Structure prediction request, 832 residues.
Amino acid sequence: MKTLATHRRHPAAVIVAILVGLLVTGGLYTVVNSATQARSAEQDATQILNGKKLFLEGCSSCHGIAAQGTQNGPTLIGVGSAAVHFQVSTGRMPLANPGAQAPQKPREYSETDIAAMAAYVASLAPGPAIPTAADLDYSDADVAEGGELFRANCSQCHQAAGRGGALSNGKYAPNLMEATPQEIYEAMLTGPQNMPVFGDSTLPREDKQAIIAYVETLRASDDPGGWALGRFGPVTEGLFMWIGALLLVVACAIWIGAKVR
Amino acid sequence: MSTSQISPVEQKGAGVATYLDERVGSNGFLRRNLNKVFPDHWSFMLGEVALYSFIVVLLSGVYLTLFFKPSMVEVIYDGPYIPLKGVKMSEAYDSALNISFEVRGGLLMRQIHHWAALFFMTAIAVHMFRVFFTGAFRKPREMNWVVGVSLAMVALMAGFSGYSLPDDLLSGTGLRIAEGIVLSIPIIGTWASFLLFGGEFPGTDFISRLYGIHILLIPGILLALITVHLMMVWVQKHTQFPGPARTNNNVVGYPLMPIYMAKAGGFFFLVFGIIVIIAGLVQLNPIWIFGPYTPDQVSAGTQPDWYIGWLDGALRVMPNWEIQAFGYTLSLNILIPALVIPGIITTLLIAYPFIEAWASGDKREHHLLDRPRDAPTRTALGVMAITFYVLLWIGGGNDIIAVGFDLSINSVIWALRISLIVLPPIAFVITKRICLALQRRDREKLLHGRETGQIMRMPNGEFLEIHAPLNEEERAKIIAKPQVKPLPQPPETDSSGVRNPKLKKDKRRAKISQFLFGDTIAAPTGEEIAHADEHLAHEVIEDAPVMAEEEALQIAHDGSVLESPGTSGKS
Prediction:
C-alpha cells in the first residue's frame, strides 16, 4: 500500500491508470464478445442446417440438391435471403403447379422455417439480404417524391392506384394493396417473377422508402368522391353507368310514362 | 266555364296574356303549341334524358369554367393534397386539383359534370336504339336521323375533349393515342399533328386550344343541332306505337299543357336528382391518383370513358400490320381500327334510312312505329351492330378483364378477334329467328285467340283448352303489322323487247330488297281474321259447350289442343 501511496502522485500514474482501465475494459469486452459470437455462430450453423433440411425436403426437386437449379427451377445461388423471404412468405413458393407466373397463396412455412431457409440460401453466396427494421422505416420518407418515383417506375405495370395490371401471356403485376411494406421492399430488391430488379444502385434506400410511403398512403387514403368502384378507372365507371344508373333512369321513365288511369 | 266565373288568378293570367298578345301576337302561337298532342310511351322519354343531362352538363360546366385554368404553364403544386405536394405540373392540372380539393362544392360539381356527360352519351345511345329498332327514321324523318347521328358524333367529341382537359396522366395518355391516330393518316399525318399540337407533342398550346373547342365550339354546335332536332320533332309530330284508334294520320296522346308540361318537368328534376345523387356517392375520374401528365409515363389499366372504349378496343384487338415502302410507313394497325372502321360505321349509320327506303321503293310517310319483331332483318342488323360494338368495347378493357378473371391477355385478344368475326352473324341469325317466331305467335294469337289456361274435358275424354279473343289493344298492335314486300325481280326486257339497260343495277337492288324484307310471316287476311273472330266468339259464348266432334277436330287441326285423337296419331 505504501508503494501505491508513494507513487500515486507520480507523473506517469495517470497514464498507467488509463492504460490499465483500457486494457481491462478491452479485455473484458473481447472475452464477452467472443462468447456471444461463438454462441450466435453456433446458432447460425444450426439455423443453416435446419434451412438446408427444409430446402432439401421442399425445394430441391426443382431448384436442385445444391440449389444449383434444374430445368424446372432457377439456381438460388446468390439470390439472397430477401428473395427467399419474399417468395415463401407470400406463398408463391413452393409452387403448386407450373404456370405463367407463381400466384400468391396462403404461406406454407412458419416465419422461423422461412428464416432458416433464407439463412441457408444466403450462406451459399452473398445476395440481397432481408431488409432490416431501419430499411423499412418509411416514416421520414417524402410521399410526393415517392409518388413521382411510383409513376415513373411502377405504375406502368401496377396501375396508378397500385391495383395491378396485365402483362403478356397470362403474366401479371399483382395488386400492391395486398402487399406489406417488407414485401414491396424485397420485391424491389430482388425482382421476383417478371419484375425488374431495382437494386440499391438504381433506387437507393430512401427512394424505396418513399415509394413504400406512397403506396401506403394510397392504401390508407379515403376516396373523397365517394364509392371508388375499385379504383379501376373508366371501365368500371362505364359499367356502373350502363348497369346501375341507366336502369334507374329507365325505371323512372317507365314510371312517368305509365298511362294515366 | 263562363267568363263571370273566372278566378282572380286566372284574370291576372288573362291580363298578362292579352298584354303580350297585343304586342307580339303570342296567343295564336301558344294555343297551337300548348295544345299539341304527344303520344305516350316510356321509350319516348329516352331522348329527353339526353336533353336533360345535357342541360346539367351545361350548368355544371359553367361553374367549372369559373375555376379551371386552361394553361400548360408549369407550376409547383402547393395545395392540400399531400401526396402531390411540391410536384411540378401544368396549371390546368393544378387548377383541376384545386377544384377537387379547395373550391367549395368543386369536387361534387366536377363529378356532376362528368357523370352527366356519361348520362348524356348513354341516353343518346339508347335513344338511338329506340329510334332504329322501331323504324322511326323512315320518311319523313330521315333528315332528323342524320341530325341525330351528327349529334352523337359531336357529343363524342365533347366527351373526349373534356376528358383530355385536366391534363392528368390518364387524359394525357388519351391525347397521346389521339396524336398517334393523327400521325397514322397517310401523307398529311405529321403535318396535321404539328398543326394540332403547335409542334412536337404535347407542346404548350394544346390544352388552351382544346378548352376553346370544349366550352365554346362544341356546345355551340350541340345546341344548334339539338334545336334543329327538336324543331323537326315538333314540325313532323312524334311517332306513335300502333294501338286502338292510332293510325298513320293521327296522334293519340295528351296535350303538352298541362300533362306533358308536368311529366317532362317532373322527369327533368328526376334525371337531375339521380345525376346529383350518383355524383355525390360514386367517385369518377380521381385525377389526384393518376398524377400529372408527362409523356414518358403511362399507367397500366389506362382506359378511355365508355363511349370511346370501342375505338380503344379496336386499336387493342387489331393485329400489328404495317406496310413499309419508299422509306414511308403506312400504319395499318392504327389506320384501320381508328379511322377506317369508325368511318364505315358512321357512314352506314347515316345511310341506313336511305338504304332501306331505296331497297323498299317505299315512298309513303310513316308515323306509326314498327314493333321490332315486325321488321326482322332490320332488328337483326341492329343487334348484330350492337354485338360488334360491345365486343369492341370489351376489347377496350381487355387488360382489366385479363387481371380480373385471371386470364391471359393474349387469349382475351384472340378470343375477341375471332368473336368479332363470328358472333355478329350468329347474333343476326338468332335475332331474326326470334323475331319471326314472335310474328308467328302473333298470327296464332290473332287467329285462335289467347290461351286462357282453362282446360276442358270432353264427354269422350278429350281435353281442350279454351281460347279467348285478344283485347282491343293487343289486337290493334298485331293487325298494324306493316306489309312491306320486297321489290320483284326486274324484267330483262321491257314490253317492246328492248333489253333493260340498268338490269344489273336493278337486280342488285332487288337482291338487297329481298334480303331486307323477304323474310316475314304473312299476316292473316281480313277474311281469315273475320272467320277466326266468328269462331272465337262462338267458343266464348258457349263457355263450356258440348262440342260436336267435327268442331273439336277443327280446333285440333289448328294445333291449339294439348291432345286429341285427331292430332296425337299424326304427330
